[in-house]
Amino acid sequence: MKFYIGSDHAGFDVKAPVIEMLKARGYEVIDLGPENKERVDYPDYAKKVSQAVAREKDSYGILICGTGIGMSIAANKIDGIRAAHCHDHYTAQMARAHNDANILCFGERVSGLGVIESMIDAFCSTPFEGGRHTGRVEKIMALQKSL
Ligand code: RB5
Question: What is the CATH number of the domain that holds 112?
Answer without folding.
Answer: 3.40.1400.10
